[in-house]
Amino acid sequence: MSPMLPCLLLLLLSLAVPRPPAVAAEAARSAGKPLLFSLRARQVPAGALPRPPSKLRFHHNVSLTVSLAVGTPPQNVTMVLDTGSELSWLLCARGRPGSPSAAAAAPAPKNASFRPRASATFAAVPCGSAQCRSRDLPAPPSCDGASRQCRVSLSYADGSTSDGALATDVFAFGDARPLRAAFGCMATAYDSSPDGVATAGLLGMNRGALSFVSQASTRRFSYCISDRDDAGVLLLGHSELPFLPLNYTPLYQPALPLPYFDRVAYSVQLIGIRVGGKPLPIPASVLAPDHTGAGQTMVDSGTQFTFLLGDAYSALKAEFQKQTRPLLPALNDPNFAFQEAFDTCFRVPAGRPPPSARLPAVTLLFKGAEMSVAGERLLYKVPGERRGGDGVWCLTFGNADMVPITAYVIGHHHQMNVWVEYDLERGRVGLAPVKCDVASERLGLML
């Protein structure tokens, strides 16, 4: 992987209740009480997580990692919770039961988190299984002709791929009822992180048939991503939160399947954008999916910044530059685009922060809710980039057409200090601005 690829920001999750999320929904139902988790920030390299092809190759991720137990006897593993992915996966030691001889003979992946041969309840998924016919995955499962077992493939942040077996095992911890769930038992994974935390595994949280959400029947979860290292919070289950005045926007789903619409993503309706209170002159048709499904708006904790399609991005760029001209000198370098998508950039004297408090807020308007991006979340300092005595800072909204992707993506950087609730039962996403440390403290007192 190129050293220019960015690092991923992981929110490491430590359980306030000693039970894993793979059984959290069942435990919460039986106890009538949601589960509360605390979060802290951590950076690992971008290539450490495999990503579906629809994901951005170079984006940062924020994920929620949880320690849980898999197999019989239980093996402790670390899995990254990702709302933008479906298939859960674990890095498996070589020689897993029933694996093709070539895979069994391959070198064991660095920092493999799971030893399937040591688990009495591990089972490879056969080709004839309904799980092997899932149509939700970006790359459909395939069948190994020799073993007649189901195979899966994932795409990495650096463009490479990882191959593995689709398998099932029990996910359990403590006295909670174990859940048998399907996951990818991956043979290899790109890993340039110092400790391999991110490569241990991933717990998919979108709405696909093979995601944790679907397999565990989780109907509601929420989180607050903090701008501090240790003040974030994750809540699995439902709790009345009177101090959080949530505004809800409906999940959007077209009546008919469309070729470019990701139906298992958390899609909402973007209806407008304001800069410093001024509405941008963007036609409603530009912000809505077209007849092919291209142009949907996805809320994704696995992408760092927010991406707008070309026409909307151009309108934002022009207005933001106009309103900040007295405050920030533009970079004026047509050949420069940070991460090949961020070209609204400015020069700021080295060693000085930009005048964040004086910058105009950018507000994303949804049907029934809004998300305001202001202050320090508006600009990002490009690592290692200098122009004379100035550093280079870029607006944290990217041009999706330059990637290219065919969707609007609301990234985690713009979800900081916003309570985000995914309510699958009622088909909606709730938003409320809140300081995460305050939310975490009040939730700890309530639950």
The assigned structural class equals mainly beta
- What's the Cα radius of gyration? 22 Å
Percent strand equals: 25-35%
The counted number of beta strands is 29
The overall pLDDT average reads 80
Can you tell me the overall shape? globular
Largest sheet strand order: 4-5-12-6-11-10
Tally of separate helices: 6
Q: Span from first to last CA?
A: 44 Å
Q: Flag low-confidence runs.
A: 1-32, 44-48, 52-62, 96-108, 190-199
Helix content: 10-25%
Q: Biggest sheet: strands, sense, closure?
A: 6 strands, mixed, barrel
Q: Please, could you describe this protein's structure?
A:
The chain is mainly beta and 447 residues long. Helix content is 11%, strand content 35%. The chain has helices at 24-31, 101-105, 212-215, 284-287, 310-324, 436-446; strands spanning 7-15, 35-45, 50-51, 64-70, 75-82, 89-91, 123-124, 142-144, 149-156, 161-172, 179-186, 201-204, 220-224, 232-236, 247-250, 267-268, 270-275, 278-279, 297-299, 306-308, 345-349, 362-366, 369-373, 379-387, 390-395, 397-399, 408-410, 418-423, 428-433. Strands 4-5-12-6-11-10 form a 6-stranded mixed beta barrel. A 4-stranded antiparallel beta sheet has the order 18-17-22-23, covered by helices on one side. Strands 16-19-27 form a 3-stranded mixed beta sheet, with no helix packed on it. Strand 9 (149-156) and strand 10 form a beta hairpin. The longest helix is centred in the C-terminal third of the chain and has 15 residues, at 310-324. The two termini are 44 Å apart. Mean pLDDT is 80; it is low at 1-32, 44-48, 52-62, 96-108 and 190-199.
